[in-house]
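Input set for joint prediction.
Command: fold jointly, output tokens.
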Amino acid sequence: MKITEIKKSINNEMNYLISSDFDSVIKKIEKRKGVIVNMDNSRSKKRMLWGASLVAATMLIVFAGVFGFSKLNKDNVNLLATVILDVNPSLEIKVSEDEKIIEVVTYNDDAKKVMEGMDLKGVELGVGTNAILGSMLKNGYIDSAKNSILVTVLGDNQTKNKEIQDKVAGGIDAYFTTNSVDGSVMSQTVISTSEVEALATKYNISVGKVELINKILAGNPLYTFEDLVNLSTTDLNLLANSKKNNVTGITTTGAASQSEYIGRDRALEIATENIKTTPSNVKNIEIELDYDDGLMLYDVEFDYNGYEYDFEIDAINGKIISSDKGKEDKYDDDVYEANATTTGKYISRDEAKNIAIKHAGVTNYYEFDIEFDYDYGHAVYEVEFETNTAEYEYIINAETGDIIYSEKDNEDDDRNSSNNTSSNNNTNTTSTSLISKAEAKSIALKHAGVSDYFEYEIELDTDDGIKVYEVSFETKLYEYDYEINAKTGKIIKVDKERADD
Amino acid sequence: MRHELQYNDIEMFEIYLLDIANGSQEALEILYNKTKSYIYGYAFSILKNVHEAEDVMQDTYVNIYRYAKNYTSKKKPLAWMLTITKNLCLNKMKKKSRKETDIADIEHMITSNKKNEHHDYVFARTLLEDLTDEERQIIILSSIEGLKYREISALLDLNLSTVLSKYHRAMKKLRAKYKEA
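tokens >
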């Protein structure tokens, strides 16, 4: 049995093991509270507001007053939006339609300390935000190491939310500049859902932080919520803006401080020292901050001397957690093979094929398959073919042409049984009576009416017990796939697709 | 030929993800039909339990639907999807009182599943009985069309050479088993 057949069988078996259908996925999607497909949909909006009103008990009265009933609170002021600020102090500013502060709700003790002796009711939002920032700086919650703040805007009107997000984030950025703080502002708007509220309540963090973590998780599902929940706003900023994580939906100005960490340059130095060279000697450098198993670490990658190196370095103490060395460009097998064979570094597929066939001492063979691979530190060709009496597998060193491995399996039970059936059927079905590849090719080309083609390939396969040639080729306009009965030459299947791009 | 088709598939997966990001359940359904055996297989290879694997498979598509708008990793849609699966599996494994190996479940399926009464699940059995955890995951991932060894080694956090040598060892075991059966 060929490797491709084994793979196909595994996939088939996995398919058979699945007992549910797509509807169960849809049911789960619909069951998930708060998944809002279309934000303009009035039904989802209602659900969202209802979810928001379930937030912590202290806020219940305000929310119910504003959203649930009259849209007015006790002081007859309309709530426009809620702005959440997360540094480590975490607090929430309720903003009226004329952009004044209705009230400030503190989420933790640090926030209480920040708000001590301050009454911002009725104060203009920008002025009030500056006052809060001033207090955070004075109390040491923002400094050169902890320099990140997260602004989250929640509210009924997405356009308005966006405006407030820009205004508040821009205001904070300006405040940092005028006060010579090297700070970084992340901002987002959020449609709060009951699911988000539940997580916020469970971990005693703001809805804004939950959303930020969710966005990082969506970009890099290798993290778990628990991993990230205890990280500081600055660390989350580093992860959210690490290229590794593809996080979207967060606007960031400034850069998160890495002063608690050794820094990217030092990380690169440590890695290069380890292989007894210097940063100036290596190329294609990529350094990203990552979080793994409770550690912040630098993922350092570069090429040196024909090898690709990958280091993981503890961001705090500079210890090398892991290192990996591999042949440069080893990964993209196709490109590698193409480059290497054209430059003459490797023998060609035909040469590899001849080596294997010659070694096997056969002249008639079929089911020929050859693949380029990188294995055991060598570039190799994996060659497979069959004769009427045996299956052959070769692994050939692509550089030297040496046979690394060869295997000959004499035909086994399944072949015998198929021989039996064929003789019982009394039809002429032995594999020797197959049409040739050239014949199959001309059948397909003739049918397609094509003479000018490229990317031509042909493979003999067994489909439902019938030997078929799978013929494929392309023209400038179309891609063709044919299945041709290898005994009768009859076309079983034609697939013609536009070759896009 | 295979490589050309794979490339097209990968491209198509990206187009589906774009549509899904815009809320298309039709695109999700197509993606589901094209990839469910991969997603299920990977979950099965980690969890070694058919019921949990099914659950994780469904949740993977729920999360794909939810987070498709965040997909940006160019040309690696499968790796992205499989990472979601892996994460869901890890969450599952943290839960207590899990039942791992369920050869019995497979036996039950073989005898009760009329649709496939002739199917003997040689490979599913062998995967559970004869392969190590890593070998099983490598075999499952390598049977996914269009997934590169590089992406497999990244998913499993193993060196490429380790992945390849384990792959060959495991493939040998599977072939031997197939001949026995």
